[in-house]
Amino acid sequence: MKYTYADVSRIVDTYSNGAYEYRRRRHEDWDLNYALYRDKIPYNRLTQRQSVNIPLLRYIIKSALKEIDDPVDVYFKEKGNDKQKEIYLNMIWADVVREQKINIKDIVDKKQNFLTGRSTSGWNVENGKVVYEIDDTFDIFFDQYTDPTDVDNTCQFMEQRHIFVPLSSLDSNMYSKKGITRLKEFYESEMGVVVSSFNNQSLREKNERMQNLGFSEVNNPELGETIIELRTSWVKLYSEKLDKTCIYQVVNSPIPYEDSSVLSFERQDKVIGSTSDDYWQDHFIKTTWADDVERNDMHTDGLADMIRPVAQVVNAWFTQVVENRTLKNFNMNYYDSGLENFVPKTFEAEPWGWYPIPVPPNKRIQDVVMNVPVDDLSATLPELQWVIGLIEKAAATTTTQAGQVNERQVTLGEVEFALAEAKDRLKSVANYYLPAWEEKGLKFVKLLEAQKKNLNIFKTSADGYKGNTYNRDINVNEALTEKGYNCEVTFKSNVKDKAVETINVLNAVKTAMPNNVPLMELYERKLLDLVPDLNPEEIKQVIDFQKNTRGMMPQLQNQGGMGGQQPPAPPQITPGGQQPPMVRE
User: Which 3 state secondary structure label does DSSP give 490?
Assistant: First the structure.
């Protein structure tokens, strides 16, 4: 079947409306989560007469983020064991990580997942450079029947909205001239002017939201520009030419009360580029992940959704405490409204002040004026602390992780055990996060393969011996292979922890095999690998010296050592880390 632009417009609009209705139930929650995180929320005048927000949600998200903010360590391993190409590709990756500030964007990615329950990112190529993009969760839509555990195979429709661009920029792209003309006619109309103004405001709000999450690379609309909204959709349709279902990429722009104006419609592998295995025919350029996956719901709860109800309760309770304390401080009074010529007024409080109040005969002043009793609600504060402690336990963010110490005396072992338990629960996020990065890594390699003709030379650098820096220009073809790559992903802190664990085990084995030279060399190399500032040349120097020293030891022992004496035994290290005292005869 050959699709016309009118057919594509109807298909995309139908999918788009369904995806919006499917996700709309989450919009109010996301808005409130974001407002609580920013400490800017509307308050209920009935329950909250003071505009006070306890930053509970921000505090817990920051505490949780602190435990998983370690960047990932991505390494590409060539399937045919071609080490030279493997080195080149990993040098290219290091250059992209540095240029695209991926470690910073990685924190934004995790924070967005905590706030909305899902985060999406993707690769792109702009002006010959690889670009890594973190998408605003408010902009990404999926069809209702997507399986969250297998998006590439089950998702039929994905859409990115709120791509705001100047109308004048469309002429420089390979878009449909008919579609551009239709948009220009609409934005010249009275309704088009209103829509353009709304788009300007939406772009500012979107940029502000991303800046507040830590993503600074955003642009504000230029004064006088007509800003329009573009939408990029990825929809699976049947291809007669290939005799199978493929992903098609559609760029369109919504027009109120009409079908959207389609600007381009092409198979995704034609847009991105072809690969040896036709990878982009059935894999989306976007990668999405969540840390609370359910089979039948793409938009599951995030950490903020668990905190939000408690944060609202805490805000309501605390603002009532503040309100009552204010009322108790300034006082409210009843007075006898039957008194003639007495109109109460607010007196300015001053030291030794005197204020006239008419008192009828045979009555006391207490009979005329009486304070309105207002409790200070101080008993609420322990309850607030209990509620906050409850949500901290649920979110695995203890006060000790936040740098606080409980008042009750606890042992060091108890503190370490509590921290370890909380850290283990937060590290469970890695079960979903690391596979997402593995997918991103594979898509990165496939993007290089598809765009190899359009990519600039990568100007890479590496640290060498004695602090020297070596520069190397790498063409992407030097790194690509026919057999392809596997992507290995770990947390950098996990790599170090595993290395320390390996050394501890080797230390125990070395005690049982004290004269095993190969084991000693392995043990020494593992120790040197833990030193962050040593380069390969320096490590080689140390290992070679150790080998030469061990080779000379038997000769020195046979000759009685220098001066006929045995060489001194190496110092022993006690478990406490100190040398035992030396005993002189």
Answer: strand
Q: What is the 3-state secondary structure (H, E, C) of 129-180?
A: EEEEEEECHHHEEECCCCCCCCHHHHCCEEEEEEEEEEHHHHHHCCCCHHHH
Q: How many CB atoms lie within 10 A of CB 464?
A: 12
- Ranges under pLDDT 70 in the chain: 1, 42-50, 210, 212-224, 377-381, 383-384, 386-388, 390-427, 463-468, 492-499, 532-536, 552-585
What is the rounded CA–CA span in Å between residue 173 and residue 294?
A: 40
What is the strand order of the sheet 227-239 is part of? 140-142, 157-166, 227-239, 244-253, 261-267
Model pLDDT for residues 505-531, shown as the tens digit of each residue: 878 888 888 778 888 888 887 787 777
Q: Which residues contact 2 (CB under 8 A, 6 or more apart)?
A: 240
The answer to whether 66 touches 114, Cβ cutoff 8 Å, is no
Strands 458-463 and 119-126: unpaired
Q: What does the DSSP 8-state code read for residue 347? A: P
The structure's pTM equals 0.75
Here the tokens at position 402 are 């936040």
Degrees to nearest 5, angle at CA 77 with 74 and 81? 165
- State the amino acid at position 141 in one-letter form: F
> How does DSSP assign 534-562, residue by residue?
--HHHHHHHHHHHHHHHHHHHHHHHTTSG
Output 320-326 pairs: Cβ under 8 A, ≥24 positions apart.
Answer: 320/47, 320/48, 320/49, 320/377, 320/380, 321/376, 321/377, 321/378, 321/380, 321/381, 322/50, 322/52, 323/49, 323/50, 324/374, 324/375, 324/376, 324/377, 325/376, 325/377, 326/50
**Minimal CA–CA distance to 518: which of 562, 481, 550?**
550
User: Are 419 and 399 contacting, i.e. CB atoms less than 8 angstroms apart?
Assistant: no
Tracing tokens 């380069």 back to the chain, one arrives at 535
Helix axes 56-68, 102-116, angle to 10 degrees: 130
